[in-house]
Amino acid sequence: MKTLDSSFKTSTNKVHHLKLHYANDNLSKDVVSKAMADLAATKLFVKDGENLVAEPLAAKYVETIETPIITAPKA
């Protein structure tokens, strides 16, 4: 499974990560950059007066590979 992991600078200069599951894994740098800028412009992610996505920093795809050791029996 791939997720899109994006990093933003908060309004208090901390780094906040936002993970999007089931993201299209063929997005171009320009598309992701614009989406992150648009998201930051909305100012929707505010907690205790801190804007969590004030400035886009970086984005990457993260792929998780599961290797079952013990599987549950089928019902």
What does this structure look like?
The chain has 75 residues and is an alpha+beta fold. It has 1 helix and 5 strands. The chain has one helix at residues 29-42, and strands at residues 2-9, 15-21, 46-47, 50-51, 55-63. Strand 1 and strand 2 form a beta hairpin. The two termini are 25 Å apart.
What is the rounded distance between the termini? Answer: 25 Å
Overall geometry comes to elongated
Widest beta sheet: strand line-up: 2-1-5
Strand content: 35-45%
Could you spell the SSE succession in H and E letters? EEHEEE
Could you tell me the radius of gyration in angstroms? Answer: 16 Å
Mean pLDDT: 93
Features:
single chain, 75 residues, 5 strands, alpha+beta, two-stranded antiparallel sheet
Produce a short descriptive summary:
The model has no long low-confidence stretch (mean pLDDT 93). Helices cover 19% and strands 37% of the residues.
